[in-house]
């Protein structure tokens, strides 16, 4: 059984974490499988959108605590292993944002600790209404410092800090209100809603979406003037494309664009 399943449908790549008996943890094997797919997708121009989901009862319960405890058996009490683990995890999280394709998390059950980080690292997220989210490592004496990076870039500081220091869980409707996810929907509508969003994005000019995704993340840390100067250059390049010219002509002529 593959730890990470993939199937492609009309430009939409479906990736499913597939270790349901262990609640789909971000184990060494799972991180390696995710990294391999990220590297493959970087140059896959047939892929327009990625949907990331979890098999079984939950989306992802975070790091594999049993593997982490086993790492303590090393002579350095696990220092080198832990440093490598969090480096590899950060590479996966940042890699999702560096993909040319938008990534949508399809979330159910729970998304906790690094699993919540995974949701926050995706470009968009749809969750079942009864899904619980938490950065709850503090409950076992491990502050979710790396999940904090993604979480604090999705929601307001004070609410993020409260979740990190209390270990409290929130349900999908509150996660939507805070901006961690795009929408919460009934469980029976989760897959269809996620696929509909993916199909809508996939119907756009893929190159424009890709250049836009890159620009979206690049401009965020810039000052206002820097951001406008940078994005202005991006739009100039975009305007010079043949397919953009065709898209504008088609709009003005009230017809569908003939994109190459």
TrEMBL record:
Gene3D superfamilies, A to Z: 2-enoyl-CoA Hydratase, Chain A, domain 1, Lyase 2-enoyl-coa Hydratase, Chain A, domain 2
InterPro entries named in the record: ClpP/crotonase-like_dom_sf, Enoyl-CoA_hydra/iso, Enoyl-CoA_hydra_C, Mitochondrial_ECH-domain
Protein's UniProt keywords contain rRNA-binding: no
GO MF, one example: hydro-lyase activity
Any one of the GO BP annotations: fatty acid metabolic process
SUPFAM superfamilies attached to this UniProt entry: ClpP/crotonase (SSF52096)
Keyword terms of this UniProt record: Fatty acid metabolism, Lipid metabolism, Lyase, Transit peptide
Record keyword Nucleus present: no
Family: Belongs to the enoyl-CoA hydratase/isomerase family.
PANTHER family per record: ENOYL-COA HYDRATASE DOMAIN-CONTAINING PROTEIN 3, MITOCHONDRIAL (PTHR43602:SF1), PTHR43602
Annotated NCBIfam families: PRK08139.1
Function, in words: May play a role in fatty acid biosynthesis and insulin sensitivity.
Protein's UniProt name: Enoyl-CoA hydratase domain-containing protein 3, mitochondrial
């Amino acid at each position: 059984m593959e730890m990470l399943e993939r199937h492609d449908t009309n430009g939409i790549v479906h990736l499913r974490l597939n270790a349901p008996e262990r609640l789909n943890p971000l184990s060494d094997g799972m991180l390696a499988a995710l990294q391999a797919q990220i590297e493959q997708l970087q140059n896959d121009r047939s892929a327009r959108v990625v949907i990331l989901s979890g098999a079984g009862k939950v989306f992802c319960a975070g790091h594999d605590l049993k593997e982490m405890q086993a790492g303590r058996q090393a002579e350095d009490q696990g220092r080198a292993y832990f440093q490598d683990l969090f480096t590899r995890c950060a590479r996966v999280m940042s890699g999702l944002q560096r993909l040319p394709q938008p990534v949508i998390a399809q979330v159910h059950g729970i998304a906790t600790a690094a699993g919540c980080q995974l949701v926050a690292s995706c470009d968009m997220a749809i969750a079942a209404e009864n899904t619980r989210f938490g950065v709850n490592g503090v409950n076992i004496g491990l502050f979710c410092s790396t999940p904090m990076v993604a979480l604090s870039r999705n929601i307001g500081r004070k609410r993020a800090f409260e979740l990190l220091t209390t270990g409290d869980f929130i349900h999908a409707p509150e996660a939507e209100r805070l901006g961690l996810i795009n929408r919460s929907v009934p469980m029976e509508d989760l897959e269809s809603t996620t696929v509909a969003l993916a199909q809508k994005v996939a119907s756009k000019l893929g190159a424009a979406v890709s250049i836009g995704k890159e620009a979206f993340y690049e401009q965020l840390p810039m000052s206002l003037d820097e951001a406008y100067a940078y994005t202005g250059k991006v739009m100039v390049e975009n305007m010079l494309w043949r397919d953009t010219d065709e898209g504008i002509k088609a709009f003005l002529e009230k017809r569908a664009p003939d994109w190459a």
